[in-house]
């Protein structure tokens, strides 16, 4: 399952992140940002996290998921707007020459330690 491998990667990164630090006793919260176009569903990630963390040092770690709206920039009229996931046409002039500014990726935003 797609979400499980995302969570496994995340846990791998967390371990690397805290490996060199002696001041970390526990990871309290993981803040993830998920773009609306990143094709990972927050609810599926939450349940994947729930399964994967069992029996690990992250058993009591919380997962905080913040959705990032899809935003495009139009190269024809230069407007930058948040749009619904779907066709990436410019909401103002209808041009297809748009570029995604944000909302197409999933990343680890920050980690709260104790
Ligand atoms: Zn436009």
In a nutshell, what does this entry contain?
The protein has 114 residues and is an alpha+beta fold. The protein has one domain: hypothetical protein PF0899 fold, CATH 3.30.2320.
Number of domains: 1
| CATH overall fold name | hypothetical protein PF0899 fold
Largest sheet: 3 strands, mixed
Strand content: 25-35%
Ligand names = zinc ion
Which CATH C-level class is it? Answer: Alpha Beta
Structural class category: alpha+beta
Instruction: Give the averaged pLDDT, no decimals.
Output: 93
Give the termini distance in whole angstroms.
Answer: 31 Å
SSE pattern, N- to C-terminal:
HEHEEEEE
Helix content: 25-40%
Spatial order of strands in the largest sheet: 2-1-6
Query: What value does the Rg take, in angstroms?
Result: 17 Å
CATH architecture: 2-Layer Sandwich
Stretches where pLDDT is under 50 for at least 5 consecutive residues are none
Total DSSP E strands: 6
- Write down the overall geometry: elongated
SS element count, helices: 2
